[in-house]
Design goal:
Shape: globular
CATH architecture: Up-down Bundle
Helix content: over 70%
Number of domains: 1
CATH class: Mainly Alpha
Distance between the termini: 21 Å
Radius of gyration: 21 Å
Oligomer: single chain
Number of helices: 20
CATH superfamily: MFS general substrate transporter like domains
Order of helices and strands: HHHHHHHHHHHHHHHHHHHH
């Protein structure tokens, strides 16, 4: 990796820009769904696959992609992901058939997984432990936390000013520029080699298990807890259990179980699942509240979310690393989660006759402050004990738990809100919707309360490098 601070900064910018492109794609399409349905004649159930096809491929392949980066080189895997993501974005934009669009979205998910899974691992190998790495992780965390909100704004603007095809075409210049700049400024790294083994059976088990898990959870949000939801989830549980058994016995496991015995890794990933379940569920519910209760259009809804990424930028880029150095990453993480809980508490009081500036904006600002300080601290803790040989799979793991958490949160909150609204036949439609959303905000707060408890109890006050890191490094060298 580049040695000078300037070259590292340029490389960091390229990696984070490409990562944000992938994150944007998960939300930029959401605003365009009604236009896509009208033009390509999607059924209501089929339209969900414009989103789900991407999520299933993306979530299912992150762990395998991270491991591939460790074996064949992270830059090589990153470049392959960018090529596939950019090409499939073009195919999606050109699609005139529903099946072609869904297939292109699946390919986008594969490319996004390859590119995203290795970015955090590349960053921690570029920067030695210390303030510079903390700042770099803060920049990366901003792209992850704020990208979805920015995607809502971009999706609304592109759909209303041009058409839905441009929600995919916008990836082309970004993808091509990222490819060229990566070749120029990001130095190639050497993996441990495919001879180290990729554990093909483990790859099949975990990829199939996570894909079915995301599929089942998404189905619960769309159709409720029917047999079509329960069967994929039960199958996913069997496959993932088989994956754990395989990892315990494999000579060269895809996910070395010793990583999960490290408190920083295990605790950070569990915290991530719970935290993101609350965060992304909040975004989903708030978009509905703004449109269905307050009456905002798609573009106005996207603009309404802008305070959150702005505050996230301020806190993640300039505040979180300073607080972590002054106190500890765990203390900053817990404090940030408490701020988010307060934001959700305010939203549980949002009325049907509410005002954006009175009932929503204060919570969006608090969400930005809490997420902007908590997420960089959590990312740093998750990667604090990763050896160079394991940084790819550790990065893939934290991204996988992030996707699973988002799917869980969205499905649970959608089901809770819909059930509460359906049970209030004796009140007006707006009040019934608002009541469902208030209950969903309460569940979001519950997810984040659990995340704060896990962070406070499981995570060490400071990463115990002297106790944990040498074990991982020795194991990595042994490979």
């Amino acid at each position: 990796m580049p040695e000078s601070a300037r070259s590292r900064a340029v490389a960091l910018g390229v990696l984070c820009a490409a990562s944000m492109m992938v994150v944007l794609d998960s939300s930029i399409v959401a605003v365009a769904l009604p236009s896509i349905q009208a033009e390509l004649d999607f059924s209501a159930a089929g339209l969900a696959w414009v989103v789900n096809a991407y999520l299933v491929a993306f979530g299912g392949l992150l762990l395998l992609s991270g491991r591939l980066g460790d074996l064949v080189g992270r830059r090589r895997v990153f470049l392959a992901g960018l090529v596939l993501f950019t090409a499939s974005s073009l195919a999606a934009g050109l699609a005139t058939d529903a099946g072609v669009l869904v297939a292109a979205r699946f390919a986008q998910g594969v490319g996004g997984a390859l590119a995203s899974a290795v970015v955090l691992g590349m960053i921690v190998t570029m920067y030695p432990p210390g303030p510079a790495r903390a700042r770099a992780i803060g920049v990366y965390s901003f792209t992850q936390a704020a990208g979805a909100s920015i995607g809502l704004v971009a999706g609304g603007a592109l759909t209303q000013s041009l058409n839905w095809h441009w929600t995919f075409y916008v990836n082309l210049p970004i993808g091509v520029a990222a490819l060229v700049l990566t070749l120029l400024v990001v130095e190639a790294d050497r993996g441990t080699g495919l001879r180290s083994g990729i554990d093909a059976l483990g790859a099949v088990l975990v990829t199939g298990g996570v894909m079915l898990l995301v599929y089942g959870i998404a189905g619960a949000g769309d159709h409720g807890w029917t047999a079509g939801t329960v069967l994929p989830l039960a199958t996913a549980a069997v496959l993932l259990a088989g994956f754990v058994l395989r990892q315990a016995r494999a000579r060269t496991p895809l996910l070395p179980l010793r990583l999960l015995r490290v408190r920083a890794v295990a605790g950070a990933n569990l915290t991530m699942v719970l935290m993101v379940a609350g965060f992304l569920g909040f975004q989903f519910v708030t978009a509905l509240y703004l449109q269905k209760v307050l009456g905002l259009d798609a573009l106005s809804t996207g603009v309404a979310f802008l305070p959150t990424p702005v505050v996230i930028a301020l806190c993640s880029l300039w505040l979180s690393d300073r607080l972590s150095a002054r106190f500890s990453p765990r203390a900053v993480l817990v404090a940030g989660l408490v701020v988010v809980i307060v934001a959700f508490g305010l939203l549980t009081q949002a009325p049907a006759s509410g005002s954006y500036f009175v009932h929503v904006l204060p919570s969006l600002v608090l969400m930005g402050a809490g997420a902007g300080t908590a997420i960089p601290a959590l990312m740093g803790l998750a990667m604090s004990a990763a050896s160079p040989a394991d940084s790819g799979v550790t990065s893939g793991l934290i991204n996988t738990t992030q996707q699973v958490g988002g799917a869980v949160g969205t499905a649970v909150l959608a089901t809770v809100a819909a059930s509460r609204t359906a049970g209030l036949a004796d009140v007006g439609a707006r009040e019934a919707l608002a009541s469902g959303y208030r209950l969903a905000y309460g569940f979001s707060a519950g997810f984040v309360v659990l995340a704060a408890v896990v962070a406070a109890v499981v995570l060490a006050r400071r990463p115990r490098a002297a106790e944990e890191t040498p074990e991982l490094c020795v194991a990595g060298q042994a490979r």
